[in-house]
Amino acid sequence: MKKNIKMKKAFYLFLTLLACTTIFKASADEGMWIPLLLGENNEAEMQAMGFNLTAEDIYSINHGSLKDAVVIFGGGCTGEIVSDQGLMLTNHHCGYGSIQRHSSLEHNYLTDGFWANNQQEELSCPGLTCTMLVRMEDVTEKVLEGVEDNMTESEREEVISNNISIIKEEAVEDTHYSALVKSFYYGNKFYLMVNEIFTDVRLVGAPPSNIGKFGGDTDNWMWPRHTGDFSVFRIYVDQDNNPAEYSEDNVPYTPKSFMEISLKGVEKDDFTFVFGYPGRTQEYVSSYAVETITQIENPIRIKIRDKALNIIGNAMNQDELTRLQYSSKYAGIANGWKKWIGENKGIKRLNAIEVKKEYEAEFEKWANSHPETEAMYGGIINRFEEIYSELKTSRRNQTYLFEAGFRPDILRFASSFRNLVEISEVKETDIAEIDEEVQSRINATENHFKNYNADIDTEVFAALFKIYITDLKAADYPAILNDINTKYNGDTEAYANELFRKSIFSSKKKTIDFLKKYKQSKYKKIIKDPAYNLISAIRNHYFQQVLPKVEKYDIELDSLMRLYMRAQMEMDPDGRFYPEANFTLRVGYGKIDDYLPRDAVHYGYFTTLEGIMEKEDPAIFDYVVEDKLKELYSTKDYGRYADKDGSMHVCFTASNHTTGGNSGSPVLNADGQLIGINFDRNWEGTMSDLMYDPDMCRNISIDIRYCLFIIDKFAGATHLIDEMKIIE
Ligand code: ARG
Ligand code: GLU
User: Fold this and answer.
1) What pLDDT digit, counting tens, does each position of 177-198 carry?
2) What is the residue with the minimal CA distance to atom 5 of ligand 1?
């Protein structure tokens, strides 16, 4: 008996230690660190791991540093500047939209690739921006000025947002910069980011998709990988080197600093770091949050997307035009789907929920051991448990609604006519304003139908709504969907066919005809349209039934997380805590590393052109290899880009902690030279957004030598190579 208790105690201690190491004593590889604080937090460790430079070389406001060569590319990726003329690298999948917009059946840059022969041929990309961090500053004190402990959450919000407005205004006074204040550590810290936003960004080059997207969605999130996932852009500015809208008079940007490129290649255990914009991670949340994500949300998302992907995928396999039209949509749906599958497997393998629960038990013991901490933190874990259990049904409803109710294209498209309805409903609205909106709808309609097939959408619609009304109780989905049961005998296909037949939004001709003859009073026809009517009902259901039930908890969860985060840091005063990712500039560092994905299997840390030839299959879309590439392979014409082993390295893995948003991030060596471009993570490691595992989590990068080899030998764009500073 006694022995039993002792053993239990020992086991308990073991689990606690395990929990602590997983969550806190971030292995050297875990963490996305704030560039401004590298000096105090990380420099020594980085140098001990092999880093040859200083924190100042990465982030400095006094002289040019690496940070001046890193940008947010578009709305969700990272890019890096690699020449003194604003030349920039990012991923192919980040440039995809811009490449697609310049593509037509005559000039199919997606399929064939694109290379500007000179700067005059570089293509402007309206709407595409690059955002560069000028400086960041800890403004926590100023943000929290006037905040009292006894304030309600909304009072607190008000004080904070007023303070933030003032801080932002002061920060950019008399400059062309823009400012942003973001919360870190769940509202315990605030940083000001002063940014410079460049609005003339041009497409310079992109490899054909069977290089840039080699392996497609089949290989996505997987290792071994052979994707040449890069594209090339350039930032243009006015004569004074300042951001400006597109103009013929604009000139290439002269950066404060740009990245040098190393041809030395990588070896196992080499020090490496990633410098970019990770989007969102949640390492510090409770076991109950992880349970909700992995046991409620992810399975629903996976199930519904599975269905949609099946339908779209089959259609793409049958028809070339459909493939072109749907490849981007498919990739978007598939990317999340596959990530969540991997995430769930990883969380299970790590036993993450149990590990977190053990940690929470330890936390409670600590919290309850002193009256002060008990008063402040004593009830947190219980409250998490209560909230997540009360939230269950609403979260489930919300996830179904997002994934099924909002998915069919016809509904999204119909929904985009809301503004036209709203301004038309108001009698006094200016005719000019309505005309302008009608014109913008006409343009949007042209765009929408370029990549649309009503038959596919009907099928997706029917299948998704079938799941929606089968899996949920009638009280939990929008009442309008009862029609399917009462009028169509539960037959979602018949319901879909009828809706698509009656709606103008299933047809380009009907929509354009309607818009061309539009008069203010015609908004009534939109309101009566079955697709518009349905999406309005779904929206109303969301805003009236679903959102209020989750919102009040979400607000409480925000304030609980703020407390819980603070408490976790207090409990472990020597712990080094990196803030959760929030799409601000971060440094992740680790080493070039292989891994053991499962029993008896060892994955090497790099891939080569050999592997592309092994995967080659002219009959499978994802594995077609360009003739020119085969030719270069057979003659081994790799030039100075070959590895010292004689082969052409394509991708490599490392233990840098990354997430979505890090796509396109520079991967640098110990000397701060560019050795790769980050574009993915391994499937076994995707749970790092919730819990990092140093043995399993790897980021995947394209070897910069493969990128240059494609630019130089494959595309012959040697003028771009000449612009770069290449270290042999
Ligand atoms: N998984 C990568 C990321 O999360 C690449 C996605 C694009 N590629 C694709 N085949 N869908 O963004
Ligand atoms: N492909 C991701 C992106 O677009 C990066 C992969 C990840 O999630 O780590 O940002």
Assistant:
1) 999 999 999 999 999 999 999 9
2) 680
Ligand nearest to the CA of 678: 2
Q: How far is the CA of 679 from the centre of ligand 1 (A)?
A: 7
CB-CB neighbours of 84 under 10 Å: 15
Residue nearest to atom 2 of ligand 1 (CA): 680
Distances in Å between the alpha carbon of 454 and those of 293, 386, 537? Answer: 33, 45, 22
The pTM of this model reads 0.93
Please confirm, yes or no, whether 229 is among the known catalytic residues: yes
Give the pLDDT band of residue 165 (cuts 50, 70, 90).
very high
Looking at residue 293, what DSSP letter applies? Answer: I
Query: Which listed residue (229, 270, 529, 643) is catalytic?
Result: 229
Ligand 2 centre and the CA of 410: distance in Å?
28
- Ligand 1 environment, Cβ below 6 A: 93, 213, 216-217, 220-221, 331, 334-335, 660, 663, 680
Burial class (CB in 10 A: 0-12, 13-18, 19+), 338: buried
Question: Which residue among the candidates 57, 83, 93, 503 is catalytic per the annotation?
Answer: 93
Q: Are 46 and 63 in contact (CB under 8 A)?
A: no
Which ranges of 52-150 does DSSP label H, i.e. alpha helix?
Answer: 55-58, 92-101, 109-112, 140-144
Residue 331's nearest CA partner among 220, 224, 167 is 220
Helices marked H in 24-65: 38-41, 43-48, 55-58
pLDDT-wise least confident of 314-328, 515-529, 580-594: 314-328
- Distance from the alpha carbon of residue 342 to the mean position of ligand 2, in angstroms: 13
Respond yes or no: is residue 663 known to be catalytic: yes
> Which residue, chain included where needed, has tokens 């022995």?
3
The pLDDT tens digits for 487-542 are: 999 999 999 999 999 999 999 999 999 999 999 999 999 999 999 999 999 999 99
Is 370 annotated in the active site?
no
Q: Which of 478, 498, 476, 477 is nearest to 487 (CA)?
A: 498
Contact in structure between 442 and 515 (CB atoms under 8 Å): yes
